[in-house]
Amino acid sequence: MRGLACFLMFQTHCYDSWLSGGARQSKFFTYSQLGGTFPAPLFLFLAGTSFALVTEKLRQKNLPPFQIAGTTIRRGAEIFGFGLLFRLQEYLIAWGWAPKSDLLRVDILNTIGLSMMLMGLVCWLVLAWGGHDHAKLALILTSAGTALLISLLTPPLWTTWRPRWLPWPLESYVNGVHNLGTPQPWLFPIFPWAAFAFAGLAVGFMLQSQWSRRRETAMFCFAGVAGIVLVQSARRLDAQPRQLYAVYDFWHTSPNFFLIRVGMLLVILAGSYAWCRWGAGQWGFSPLILLGRASLLVYWVHIEFVYGRFSILPKRAVNIGTASAGLLTIFLAMLALAFIRTRWKGRGTEITAWFRRPLRAA
After folding, report:
1. What whole-number distance in Å separates Cα of residue 12 and Cα of residue 8?
2. Side-chain-facing half-sphere of 62: CA atoms under 13 Å
3. Which of 46, 98, 186, 297 is least enclosed by beta carbons within 10 angstroms?
């Protein structure tokens, strides 16, 4: 799933950066940007599922809740630190024309790191309060409830409940206001983006349950069906004439749109399981699997060659064909980088074996 997120991210960024004004008016560009709505939710959702896996392993070692929380929160702080370093790197490379406010821009890495720290705090509270009896069920329900709560609070926190009393660098982590006076949909504040991480956390704990382990295939099929039901239910809710919020923005803050995307993530999860269990994931070398194993590195590097000063094509100046050739170049270059990274880490021979365990892979 991370590999798919990387590819969708590449195509979205490449076409957005390089296509000229005329090409940007085409349906092709519209569809490419529609595909760009998936990478961020995918990365956050997978951060949640991975977090659940790590937490469960630590629980099986009978570690106390505060030690589990400390381990997971520190990892989240590392990712948050990477996000700050990434912003500093981009500012230094763009020295002379990048505004200083870019150093405090809320990017996806910042939100992933903060989401992990929040998940660590929530898991600690659940485990410390409830002990080990029925802890798995409590973690699932709390994670799902937190995801829904974040989604429900997003519309007012972007409009009528805006914390204007906070300095803009802090308020930006709530609603993405940056220094522009109003929330910006191109940023990644906690509301609503952290909700995807908590949704992934709930799914991750469900996948780690004994029932799911005994009925692995049935569980992933159920996830796909549940995703379709969730999408259709959210669409019906959105079609209702009465709305709960004074200001309603379907594409950016709507809880209904959040549920639709979570449903689609569940469908992608089921599809990824099928791909790894019965599809090309069993064939050996898989470009998407390789990209997924080095997702942080290729994210960090490709930005500079697409949006940065070292862009391989002139920005907003080429047609669809030229931009597509550039996309292929970026894809192959990032694939080579991922291959070198996995070999250098001494894990190149484990790529296929890792993904031949469908539960872990998905």
Report:
1. 6
2. 0
3. 186
Six-digit token string for 151: 């989604």
Q: pTM of the entire structure?
A: 0.89
The dihedrals phi and psi of 106, each to the nearest 5 degrees, come to: -85, 105
Write the CB contacts of 38 (distance below 8 Å, at least 6 apart in sequence).
4, 5, 8, 261, 264, 268
Written as six digits, the tokens of 328 are 């292929």
- pLDDT (0 to 100) of residue 304: 87
- Of the chain, the end-to-end C-alpha distance in Å amounts to 7
| Spatial separation of the C-alpha atoms in residues 58 and 71, rounded to whole Å | 9
Check: CB of residue 13 under 8 Å from CB of residue 303: yes
Of the candidates 241, 300, 296, 330, the one whose C-alpha atom is nearest the C-alpha of residue 90 is 300
Q: Is the dihedral of CA 78, 83, 86, 88 positive or negative?
A: negative
Contact 225, 285 (CB under 8 A): no
The pLDDT of residue 346 is 52
Strand-pair partners of 19: 318
CA dist., res. 258 & res. 231, Å (int): 10
Q: What is the mean pLDDT of each run of 10 residues along the chain (362 residues)?
A: 86 92 88 86 94 90 89 93 91 83 92 96 89 78 96 95 95 95 93 97 91 87 95 92 86 94 94 78 70 86 88 92 94 92 60 38 38
- Three-state DSSP at 318 gives strand
CB 302 within 8 Å of CB 14: no
| CA–CA distance, 190 with 158 (Å, rounded to integer) | 11
Cis? peptide before 192, omega within 30° of 0: yes
Enumerate helices (H) and strands (E) in the chain, giving the number of each.
Answer: 16, 0
- Nearest CA-CA partner of 298 in 235, 342, 266, 345: 342
23, 29 Cβ separation under 8 angstroms: yes
Using the Cα atoms of residue 279, residue 280, residue 282 and residue 288 in order, give the sign of their dihedral. Answer: negative
DSSP code of residue 248 = -
